[in-house]
Write a structure and sequence with these properties.
single chain, alpha+beta, 32% helix
Amino acid sequence: MAIVRLFAAAREAAGTGRDDLPGTTVSDVLDAARSRYGSPFVDVLATCRVWVNGDPAEDSTAVGPADEVAVLPPVSGGAR
């Protein structure tokens, strides 16, 4: 199990900001998230960046029970 943190649109699509999901790689964890949260989450995930313990991650990045997988949608903003 990895600790998964979901932000902004990913949190809205999943209905939670934190979950524990099974997997030994980022790909495994994201597959579990897709299954759990369904198509609204899948749509958002396509535009997201994934980080493990504060570092950019790839699908093959290994994760363990103490690791945090963060799903970060693109953001915009700022004052004009």
